Amino acid sequence: MNYLVIFHIQIFNFDETNLSDDPGKKVVLVRRGRQRVENIQEHSKTSISIMLCGSASGVMQPPMVVYKALNVYQGWVTGGPQGTAYSCTKTGWFNMKTFEKRFKACFLPNVQHLNGPKLLLGDNLASHFNADVIKLAKEHSIYFVMLPPNATHIMQPLDVSVYGPMKRCWRQVLTEWKKQSRKSGFSGFHTCGIYPINLLNVVADSNTDTCFICGKEDDEEIGEIIEEEEEVPVEWTGCERCGRLEDAMSIECIVCQKQ
User: Fold this and answer.
1) Is the sign of the CA dihedral 133, 137, 138, 140 positive or negative?
2) pLDDT per residue over 168-190, tens digit each?
3) What global pTM score does this model have?
4) Contact 17, 128 (CB under 8 A)
5) Is 26 exposed, middle or buried (0-12, 13-18, 19+ CB in 10 A)?
6) Cα angle at 42 between 38 and 46, to 5 degrees?
7) Which of 47, 87, 108, 198 could lock 193 by a disulfide, CB 3.0 to 4.6 Å apart?
8) Torsions phi, psi of 176, nearest 5?
């Protein structure tokens, strides 16, 4: 029997996970005595798939992100970690094509400097492997070790030590973002002068201090125009039909439309 001599820098684990823009629930109800709780649910919110790969020596390779879309837009790949690969599928999950792309773009370039065999642990998903990936693995002395089904949450290193803390941080980011979005939504009504009602916010452009009506760029000039308008005497009278105050210069009531 031949034994492989493999060091910790040659042992790797890859795993795919899904991140949603729904922070989810922190508390769930389960039967008394349950020691492990699994929550599988469908989300109607937007989500992306991420595949990470790390070694037993603690070195993490660049991730790959898969969007549920027909095309990858420039805004989706801006500001990501250096070396990250991006792709898209109809389902938003990895398939043979995207896994092959990740294997070639992220894994092989980061293990070519290692001599001897490499051990790669992962899920036993047929959708991840094709003939080209297996051929490349043989050429580079890479051995796949498939973990038993339904046991990755206790046997897969990335599931146990990386994805758990990462998703807790992600939930905190989403929760804080939703709080800020609510505040920003209210401030938008305030800035537009809708609520509370404020004519000055509508007349003056908050970015350029320019009135979009008269084009004045000085706050004092805008104030003078408003003051002049306020000095114009306006007579008000009551509508005989509804009692609503109406401009004396108007020929009909703005409420009941009666002259």
Assistant:
1) positive
2) 888 888 888 777 777 666 677 77
3) 0.62
4) no
5) exposed
6) 120
7) 198
8) -65, -40
